[in-house]
Design goal:
Elements (H helix, E strand, L loop, with lengths): L2 E6 L4 H12 L6 E8 L2 E8 L2 H10 L6 E7 L14 E2 L5 E7 L4 H10 L11 H12 L4 H9 L6 E7 L6 E6 L6 E4 L4 E4 L11 E4 L4 E6 L2 E6 L4 E2 L3 E3 L15 H7 L1 H9 L3 E2 L4 E2 L8 H6 L2 E6 L1 H18 L3 E5 H4 L10 E7 L5 H12 L3 E6 L5 H4 L3 E4 L12 H21 L4 H11 L2 H9 L2 H9 L6 E6 L4 H15 L2 E6 L16 E6 L5 H13 L3 E7 L3 H6 L2 E5 L7 H19 L18
Parallel strand pairs: 18-19, 18-20, 20-21, 21-22, 23-24, 23-25, 25-26, 26-27
Antiparallel strand pairs: 1-4, 1-10, 2-3, 2-4, 5-6, 6-7, 7-8, 8-12, 9-10, 9-11, 11-15, 12-13, 13-14, 16-17
The protein binds 2-deoxy-2-amino glucitol-6-phosphate.
2-deoxy-2-amino glucitol-6-phosphate binds next to helix 9.
Length: 613
Amino acid sequence: MCGIVGYIGPKNATPIIMNGLKKLEYRGYDSAGIAVLENGSIEIRRDAGKLDRLRQLVQESPIKGNVGIGHTRWATHGVPNTRNAHPHLGMTGDVVLVHNGIVENFSSLRDELESEGIIFQSETDSEVIVHLIERYLSGGKNLTDAVHKALLLLKGAHGIVVLSKNEPDKIIAARIGNAGGVVIGYGKDEMYIASDLPAILEHTRKMVFLESRQMAVVSREGLMVMTLDGEEIQPKVHNIPWDPVSAEKGEYRHFMHKEIHEQVRSLTDTIAGRVDFELGSIQLPSLNISPAMVKEIKKIFIIACGTASYAGMVGKVLIERIARIPVEVEIGSEFRYQDPIVEQNTVVLAISQSGETADTLAAMEEGRRKGATLWSIVNAIGSQAMRMVDGFISMQVGPEIGVASTKAYTAPLVDLYMLAILLGELRGTIDEKQRRQLVDDLRLVPDLAGRCLDREGEVKQVAESLLEAQNALYLGRGVNMPTAYEGALKLKEISYIHAEGYPAGEMKHGPIALIDADLPVVVIAPRDPWYEKMFSQIEQAKARGGRVIAVATEGDEQIQKQADLVLSVPETPWMLSPVTAVIPLQLLAYHIAAQRGLDVDQPRNLAKSVTVE
Ligand code: AGP
């Protein structure tokens, strides 16, 4: 997924765009570029590499103007080099464009354009769009109509921002499908455009989010929005409650480290306003549910990708145990190809931090097509997964910038726990006493998280002993089997150590052959209903010469004796134990990657939200 920023107003566009791109660099960082209208011509600076390279170019050869666009790229078509870096200029030199998404029919369009004499400068799919726009401009259309006509030819999902030196009083933005958002912010006699709101949050909180198949003509005075069917519409204006500081690193070296430590606050925030501890009840008004509707639910599909899917697996255990509703967890990239059986009274519940993950959005559309009720648990305000559903639960944990998801993993665990209690109450599968106990346990969560964070020094020491590891195995069971998957993913994606999360009970069916003194085995064994089984897992691994790092409840002497290293967590009610058990694993992955000198916030090949399928 790429980062896009645009500005039109009285100020110099260059620093606004550069600072905005910095806030979006987590979205993709293979190359970066900026185009600004200066004295009637389009000035472009762009290069492969991270934003610092672009900053150097702009310092060496400054550009100044009041209208501009910028882009950080996560390469899909064409290797990251200067020619493939956005922005892309048309052949006339009058029009320039930045693009997020994939032009699925780009090769046929490229052939057509080349047959018309167009000479391509790059291997990207995006470049076809600017040539299509110029084709219609040369046919006498104005910029708005030319962009509109070009968009109608594109297949795939797109976020596009275009400007022309011949119409310097406007920028055109458009969105097709789920290729990441296009958000437009209102300033005073100035307007901001971005693919994600952290880029412009310091300038404005008054924002409009384009829906799919909408385009906006943005001028200093405001914007006109129309659908690709040509109908002008009045978009909803959101006032965003997030403060700009939360999108900064503060005294932390990495966003990920900051966000791990934010989890006392973020868990408090995700609970806030949803629990009446006196009554022992849960309120989730934005879910728009009624007791009658809930009583009719026959099945819930939880759909998500990556870390979010592991939260969904925990959700399955909680919802089935508390509300007795059958739950199936499906990864977004598979669901829509399974011709899923979606009967009446089925709910599709999507979990997504960004709310823009293309695989998850496509699965949601499949669920909608098959008649399911759509719910979502989402963090990014105004994102597609928050807007397209019948009801949602906002994670409300503020911007998560680190590519490796942390607070946006523990928050949905608690959101799913609250959802399970509410569903159980409405369906009568738990009585008042049980409900009050479950709600009361929620009160403990932020403090328990804080106690996990207080043990960071212990985790750092364990990290030092794993710096040379080439592989690792993470074992869990029951409600903490997903904790094993999530712990392994954290290590993989930021330290590049191959780590595999595995159901502990499955080890004896083959993978136990892997265990030897060189293979660190992380065993998640807090006091939960599967504890005894997990303890014997530790003994089995030790009997085969394995090196065992155990996540264990504080004071567990038998594990202290048996395991080589222990990461202690506070005693936690078992249904909430995935919240505390994951925190040492987040810290473990972070410290291994940081001590290996890796780019923790922007791991190689990754992007914060994958808006391509
Ligand atoms: C998690 O650390 C990864 N960055 C990745 O697995 C992520 O969880 C996944 O891409 C889903 O993203 P979403 O929550 O924004 O939909």
